[in-house]
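Subgroup meeting minutes
Present: P.N., E.W., G.H.
Scribe: E.W.

1. P.N. recapped why we're keeping a running log of single-chain structure predictions: easier to compare across weeks, and new members can see raw inputs and outputs side by side.
2. G.H. added today's entry (208 aa).
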Amino acid sequence: MKQSHKTRRAFALSSIAITALALVALLAAPLPALAAGKGQLMMIPDFTKGEKIPEGAKHDWNLGATGLRGWIYCDKMVTSDARQIAITKVEKGSPADGIVAVGDVLLGVGGKPFSYDPRTEMGQALTLAESEAGQGKFSLTRWRAGRTAEVVVKLPVLGTYSATAPYDCPKSKRILELAARISPSGWQIPPMPSAWTPSPDRSMRSRC
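Output recorded in log:
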């Protein structure tokens, strides 16, 4: 059943509110996956061959503004050995609702198979999709019941993070504004300086 425009918009704004808490475009950091038993090596499952999520490895990942959660093979929070994402949850009314279902397997993003780290590749693709250049189109390679298809999840266009984000960054400001609009507590947007310079003892700038 197709979701109404208002329902999808409401979920998109809810996703923006969650994103605003950290002002990040990348996926949430997970806990390490656990093997079936302590000291046992966990083999990387191939879900397209009917293999299951290993027993005891129940932690799944938030897949950003899509409204999806998925299980990714992980070794001490490192997902670079994985090449598949098994979908474990689809939020009702989310952008991916009706396009991706629980039990589906994601094999790639942007028309290319995962090649080095599904979590990083998803995060980068989400950032691009939310930009003006990406036009809100988030393309996924979906495997379902033996068939592979390219599907597109429509996301809200939020712009591009500036080099100084979250400072002097239109996208960061828009995320905060949208989050404040739907916040039940009605919290106010904190003042954002137009520029920021790291102290001498900082080796990296604050980034989204």
